[in-house]
What we know:
The protein is mainly α and 287 residues long. The chain is 84% helix and 0% strand. The chain has helices spanning 13-60, 67-106, 113-151, 154-160, 165-200, 208-217, 221-247, 254-286.
Amino acid sequence: MIKIKKYIPSVKVIPKIRDATVHSMSKLSDNTIARTTAASNFLTTVADVFLFIAHVTRETFSRDFEFKEFLRQCFQIGNKTLPLITVTGAIMGLVLTIQSRPVLVDFGAVSMLPGMVAVSLIREMGPVITALICAGKIGSGMGAELGSMKVTEQIEAMEVSSTNPIRFLVVTRVLAATIMIPLLVLYADAFGILASWAGANIKGDVTLSLFFAQAFKVVGFIDLFPAIIKTFFFGAVIGFVGCYKGYHAGRGTESVGVAANSAVVLASLLVLVVDMIAVQITDMLVL
């Protein structure tokens, strides 16, 4: 008769099993706590953003509007960004013309070049690229400026002196960005079409009046109006993100750079998201 021995763990093996079980349970508990903390931080950030937007919106329609500071911010945004937008618009028009002309020559449709460039710039390339440039220039500037004021406790000093920092610092910058970025986009579109005429004359010969007549012959209301409307949202997004990141910067000096960097990244991403939504809405309206 064969005897089967029942396996009984030794006294030395039992503590190892217990320790491994406790370690796996503690690791699982740490992962759960980390996920819960990340979800809680995300929801807290979302709530802070909505409260910040509500506060800014309420202060925008208050009686004591800082009109002089608003005009100063408009001048700062337009004056400091205009040279960069000029170069950007010229490059957009030249590159689009030089790349497209050989293909149109092969099909014998060189006369369609001005209209194609105008529609491309007005509908998509002009607003999006100009908004991304402004996100890097204006958004980072707002984040760094308000972040440095937060670090040096200038915002707290304004609150002590009975000055509303949201109304004076944030509202004026958000409104200035909302109004000036559409104007910068229109300027970039116009300069891009002018640069396209210069690019078309590198290997051709077309007058400026004829080029502009052919360009705006195909541009309709459905091309111009949605493109202008979405630039206001681009400006509002850039202003809100830059001011929020700077206004909620940390206490250390390194937080200024973090605020400026995160403002550029988030503003650029939101510009693309807003553009995607605007394109879908425009497509539904056209159909």
